[in-house]
Amino acid sequence: MTATTTARVAAVQPRTARPPSRLRAWATRAPLLPALIFMIAVTQLPFVATLVISFLDWNALYPKERHFTGFGNYSQVLSTPELRKSVWTTILLTVTVVLVSLLLGLLLALLLDRRFRGRAAVRTMLIAPFLLVPVASALLWKHVLFNPEYGLFNGVLHWIGGDGAPQPDWISQMPLAAVEASLVWQWTPFMMLILLAGLQSRDPQLIEAARMDGAGDWQVFVHITLPHLRRYLELGVLLGSIYIVQNFDAVFTITSGGLGTANLPYTVYQTFYQAHENGLASAAGVLVVIGSIVIATFALRVVSSLFREEVSGA
Amino acid sequence: MSGIATAAGGPRRPGWKGTGLGLVAWLAGIVFVLPIAWMALTSFHSEADAATNPPSLTASLTFASYREFFGLDGGASPWPALINSTTASVASTVLTLLLALPAAYALSVRPVKKWTDVLFFFLSTKMLPAVAGLLPIYLFAKNAGLLDNIWALVVLYTAMNLPIAVWMMQSFLSEVPVAIIEAAQIDGARLPTVLGRVVAPIALPGIAATALICFIFSWNELLFARVLTGVVAETAPVFLTGFITSQGLFLAKVCAASLVISLPVLAAGFAAQDKLVQGLSLGAVK
């Protein structure tokens, strides 16, 4: 999207404008319609249905007792200790994973931004965790790394510490941290890729000039790199939050929602799939959506500022 | 990320510090890839060697767990699940591209009015969590007799990937010179011909990257597959959930299964490496 777009619009506009018929306007719109209609049908309509069901007291096992209950489900979600806890777990899980992987991603991006022997190989190695099927990666952490008897972590502790080494049962002693560790490992490469793209879009001349004026590494980082990276950091936080708020695979695989790790998506799944409480599950689903809308509003703003800059500038 | 040669990392300053930081980067890379390397090694060990503590690095190698995973020694075969996943991923990717290509054309080459608003509508649907529609979709599939039917997943995965595809393709198509398209239209070519014969070949690398990213997301998906499929339409990630509860000595088999099922994603991911960020950030970062 460069200046050619504006030139293109200018070149195309008079031609399309000449016969100002409605037919012509629809011909322009036609290629868009299949995708648009498909999206509305498959994503928006079900959500409207969720909204409606969230106001019903509806257990699938007792379909005849279905009735309107107003905000009953919402007050139940917010007053049942387990459900309320899952709201808190979702927040804790998302914030921890996003911040830790952002920080690690930043460090790795800074390391990879330098030239050194085998940089491409290191980059490939760092991306690999992101390219495992999420269930496979969760299984890897659960069985291969965390297993108290023959997992790699305790194996290494045994190696280092000999027979007296501590052999913790990682998942039962720190269930949420265990889930978080596996997600951090998976999402750090994502943050690194975004931040590395940000680092490489810095203006080399600006840095050169700063160095000429005697700025050291730290000063260049604080006064040039960080301000430039700000929007990339925001983008990483927001996209990471959107993906991790929705996480189901890791919680389902590593702890099956047990030991206080059930987040909202897992709770929604369990409430309707196992407890058959359709109304309650829908209310919890709507709460996830409200949380996502808050994040998404900021995310859309960041994406649109990057986008507009690209459309107008470059 | 074509800018490796022109990276803005400042001039190269060799010396101890540079070498040291290079070593730190190598160390970080090794730490991150180690669990996967260990998983690969374990998958070639016998179950007895896989379950030792401390771990046995130099145990003899065997294909036993791969034989067992593929059901050669009896037991459940993973092939139906792998075939289902391939069907769902490939079919939804094709459908996504068929819907996204014309849409991207209407948003870049010959933009409709308020095209940025439309583009952001697509993006906003991606931010609606999957659980938001899970229950109605389940109820609909149940009443329509589409439970345990792989085509239900094809439709859902298409919706899941369409926003990403539209955003990526929009940015790729805007790089196609408009003069070529106009020349084809003057020659009397209709839209499908223009898209198929003129636009697609030029934007091919971008379309390929988009396809690979859609494929990865479809292949990975668990929540909908878990809720909507059963015995017949089970996908590979659902097959993997069979390994969640421990079953005695089964570590080598878990590793083999996880690796084999991740292999298509690893391949697609490394093939699309340069466009990965662009896809994941919905086109916001190039």
What are the defining features of this structure?
heterodimer, A: mainly alpha, MetI-like fold, two-stranded antiparallel ribbon, 15 helices, 75% helix, B: 286 residues, mainly alpha, disordered N terminus
Overview of the structural elements:
The complex is a heterodimer of chains A (314) and B (286). Chain A has one domain: MetI-like (MetI-like fold, Orthogonal Bundle), CATH 1.10.3720.10. Helices cover 75% and strands 1% of the residues of chain A. A two-stranded antiparallel ribbon of chain A has the order 1-2. With 314 residues, chain A is mainly alpha-helical. Chain B folds into two domains: 54 residues, no CATH class; 202 residues, MetI-like fold. The longest helix of chain B has 30 residues. Chain B is built from 14 helices and no strands. With 286 residues, chain B is mainly alpha-helical. Chain B starts with 15 loop residues before the first helix and ends in a 6-residue tail after the last helix. The N terminus of chain B is likely disordered. The chains are: A mainly alpha (314), B mainly alpha (286). Chain A: It is a multi-pass membrane protein. Chain A: Pfam families: BPD_transp_1. Chain A: Belongs to the binding-protein-dependent transport system permease family. Chain A: Keywords: Cell membrane, Membrane, Transmembrane, Transmembrane helix, Transport. Chain A: It comes from Streptomyces naganishii JCM 4654.
